[in-house]
Amino acid sequence: MNAEAQAVKKRGPIPESWSLAAAEVLGLLGVSADQGLDEREVRLRLRRYGRNLLRTTKPRHLLAILIDQFRSAVILLLGAAAIVAMAFGDFVESLAILAVIAINTAIGFLTEWRAIRSMEALQQLGRVDTVVRRGGRTRKIQADGLVPGDVVIIEGGDIITADIRLLEVSKLQADESTLTGESVPVAKQTAPLDSPTVLMERSNLLFKGTAITRGSGLGVVVATGPDTELGLISRLVADATAQETPLEKRLNALGQRLVWVMLIVAALIAVAGIMAGRETLLAIEVAIALAVAAIPEGLPIVATIALARGMWRMARRNALIVRLSAVETLGATGVILTDKTGTLTENRMTLSTIELIEGEVRVGGTGLDTHGDFEMAGSVPGGQVLGLVDDLLKAVVLCSNASLELDSPGVAKVVGDPTETALLIAAAKRNIRRDTLQQAMPELREEPFESETKAMATFNRANGAVLVSVKGAPESVLPHCVAMRTTQGDVPMSDDQRETQLNKAHALGHRGLRTLAVATRVVQDANTDPYADLVFLGVVGLLDPPRPGVREAISCCRDAGIRVVMVTGDHVATAHTIAIDLGLVDPHPPDGAIKDARTLSGRLDEFEEADLDQLSVIARATPQQKLDLIALYQEQGNVVAMTGDGVNDAPALKKADIGIAMGIRGTAVAKEAAAMVLQDDEFSTIVAAIAHGRTIFENIRKFVVYLFSCNTSEILIVSLATVAGAPLPLLPLQILLLNLVTDVFPALALGVSRGSPEVLTRKPHPIDEPILSRQLWSLIVIYGVLMAASVLAAMAVAIYLLGFSEAKAVSVSFCTLALSQLWHVFNMRDKQQNWIRNEITCNVWIWAAIALCLLLILGAVYIPGVNDLLGLVNPGRAGWLLIVGMSMIPLVLGPWARKISLNR
Q: Is residue 881 situated within a structural domain?
């Protein structure tokens, strides 16, 4: 082995092997294509390069993940509250708080643990057998034993298990959609390419994790394990940082504020109580009870249930949420970066256009449906034109190796190359079937597709002669055509006419269609040159068509203030055509709306904010560029959703604020990296999920306002009474009961509200917008003052006007506060909605919560033993009239309070 080869081996796999001749690659790897590596050399290279496995990340210990869940300010405060409640003998309250902690801890633990499974899914792609040539013999080995320099034998249906430089090919095609995003199988060849050739165009390479759809070949391994293109993606998945969700950020910020609120409230109330002459123990008990009240114990569990309810609703709409916090994240989404193939399009080639000499014929229908109309200039073509269409379709059906079967409704089951199956489906729309034609015109021989001719031909017996059918690249077929078929019959074809038809074919290509020219000829001998003296029939244009409903969904996103950007590995022309059809861009888009990633630097650092505002389509994008694009939008303050289905999408799905994988066409890797899986692969499902997400955020905001205003009223009541030296309106256990009953159940009902129907007509809330804005804090204070004033006024009336004892007056103040908090839930309606009929009054859970709370309050007053424990007595008829009347004041004045605070 020469010194150069040894030096290369020390560096690792062959760099830019696509730019080198096959013989040069073999020389650098020190291997013969006929013999392959010997076993001794294989062992040496296994030690040098390692096994052919993707990089594995050492998972964090489960105990470490569990401990991390307790590093939240709210969780620590709840833990302190549970200890306090237990110290004062309130085991029910303590157990309820501990249950909240357990639920939140379990959710966080499971969320982090699932990240390990993403890498496991990637590793599964390498666990197959591979046929290699070693020591001059052909052997089947485990793919993880491959090393650079192994000579691999490739057949149709194989899964490629390493990056391979091709040495020989025969009609070889590979499906690389999971890696590159291209929807059409890639024809392979062996010639070297230019050094700057992008991944999608390296036609002399096969990539780990892709599949062979047709043909056979021979190649040499140039990269294994983490050095492959798939290995690069696995590193990106491992390195991509999962973002903290907006809800997590907001709740953490709120929790940090509550720490100081709790400490300040506890200290001030305790000092004020002692200075007012109350017993030290009682003053401390009240201070601790109010400090616990400052922590909305129900907040985490209500947030969890609201999100879980949203998760269930989304599942009914075929949106499976993998990570619970992703439910709310959807509501803040401002940018959707979407893959094209399989997300915006059908991921199935469809014949959409036939360019005849007489003009263009449009073909209706998509997918596997064999029903579709043929139109020319907006109307049904005449019989003669349809005859030309049938001649062309018969030729492409005969010149095919695919097969088609129809079930009773007319939906096809196809086997074979996607382009050929699309042609068979189009022919079935004219009731032309390959099996029927084959019976009438038996095939004599086939001239297979070759990269040199870029065409294929078949010879069929027909009426005592031989019918030659040809299809291939227009630039390859048209030069061999001497005549063309028209409604007047076959007429000679001039050079100018050939040039005209070639230009028409190029025009179809510029529209993003894959083009094939179709020709025919009648001969007497099946051994005749298939490509001589052909009669031109026309050009077919195929396209992966847009999915139904996507255009409407994109329009809905635009109305909701959400920007949709197509990010695809496909060709620019194809992406441009689909973008126009979907309404993403105009037929003549402004500069910067469509970008070819190949014209950019490796990364997207040169993009400025103005560029991102203009961008609608970026084609030929690499996995790294997708990550860069997500990061750029996130730096602008956008919540970014990313859709995808392939291995190449996995890093971006993890990096995005909300990764959305396709459930039907998506790979296991993409699903594991995503936070949401679309079980129906419908883009419109994303829009429905965003509406649910926005509703959930509004619900969370409403019950936070509700909980905090109720807790504020309790703090004000006790604080003012303490400062004034008046009897204590609320006892410690009464405060804890209110927090457990009247706070939680109505808040739960608010959390499952269906929300406003206008939710998708508003812009997404900014990522840095807190749950409680300054206006909402002022509203909370005003609501708290109203409830506190009504309670203190009720207690004053009970003592000074009605002559109630202190115990009876405390019962009045407790019941007044409990009922005013119940009625207060109706102040949480959307400000644009009717006072009588709105999402609160139409929520049956609200009425159920109020009924349950009323029963619990009455039980607390009248059940023997319970009332003694809580220090409550029967307030009597006069007391209840006073309670009901005073408790209605916050509800009546609630609209006035909202008007004052929201107009500040």
A: yes
Domain count, the chain: 5
Per-chain mean pLDDT for the chain: 81
Work out whether the CA dihedral 702, 705, 711, 717 comes out positive or negative: negative
pTM, 2 dp: 0.66
Q: Work out the average pLDDT over 495-523.
A: 92
CB atoms within 10 A of CB 588: 7
Integer Cα distance of 609 and 621 in angstroms? 19
CA 55, chain centre distance (Å) = 25
Domain boundary among the residues 73, 92, 121 is at 121
Q: CATH number of the domain that 414 lies in?
A: 3.40.1110.10
Give the model's pLDDT for residue 154: 92
Catalytic residue among 144, 227, 339, 645: 339
What's the confidence (pLDDT) of residue 79?
72
**Strand, helix or coil for residue 527:** coil
Q: Which of 409, 422, 283 is nearest to 348 (CA)?
A: 422
Residues 8 and 157 in one domain: yes
Helices (H), 549-667: 550-559, 572-582, 609-614, 623-635, 650-655
> Three-state DSSP class for 638?
coil
- Calculate mean pLDDT across residues 853-877: 90
pLDDT, tens digit (0-9, with 9 covering 90-100), for 334-380: 999 998 877 888 878 899 999 999 999 999 987 788 888 999 988 99
- The answer to whether 718 touches 268, Cβ cutoff 8 Å, is no
Q: What CATH number corresponds to the domain at position 829?
A: 1.20.1110.10
- Using CB atoms within 10 A of its CB, is residue 451 exposed (0-12), middle (13-18) or buried (19+)? middle
pLDDT at residue 490, as a whole number = 95
Q: Is there a contact between 546 and 582 (Cβ–Cβ < 8 Å)?
A: yes
Give the pLDDT confidence score for residue 10 in this predicted structure.
38
Q: What percent of the chain has pLDDT over 90?
A: 32
Residues 665 and 723 in one domain: no
State the Cα torsion 80-85-86-90 to the nearest 10°. -160
Asked whether residue 255 is domain-assigned, the answer is no
Fill in the amino acid letter for 486: T
Tell how many helices (H) and how many strands (E) occur in the chain: 33, 27
**Residues 836-861, mean pLDDT to the nearest whole number:** 89
Enumerate the H helices of 332-382 as residue ranges: none
Residue of 437, 371, 378 lying closest to 403 (CA atoms): 437
- From residue 859, alpha-carbon distances to 33, 56, 291, 882 in Å are 88, 59, 26, 19
Split at pLDDT 50, 70, 90, the class of 181 is: low
Distance CA 684, CA 670 (A): 19
Q: Phi and psi for 490 in degrees, rounded to 5?
A: -80, 130
Helix, strand, coil abundance in the chain, percent, nearest 5: 50, 20, 30
Which residues are bridge partners to 490 per DSSP? 485
Is residue 339 annotated as a catalytic residue, yes or no? yes
Residue 901 in this model has a pLDDT that exceeds 50? yes
Q: What percentage of the chain has pLDDT greater than the value 70? A: 78
Which residues, at least 6 apart from 771, have a Cβ–Cβ distance to it below 8 Å? 250, 251, 254, 700, 701, 704
**Do 486 and 389 sit in the same domain of this protein?**
yes
Query: Are 567 and 527 part of one and the same domain?
Result: no
What is the token pair recorded at 475? Answer: 């630039």
Which of 303, 133, 410 minimizes the C-alpha distance to 696?
303
Whole-number Å distance between alpha carbons of 684 and 386? 37
| Longest distance between any two alpha carbons in the chain, whole Å | 121
The full DSSP string for 692-742 is HHHHHHHHHHHHHHHHHHHHHHHHHHHHHHHHHTPPPSS-HHHHHHHIIII
Write out the residue range of the structural domain in which residue 84 sits: 62-121
Residue 310 has pLDDT above 90, yes or no: no
| 125 has pLDDT over 50 | no
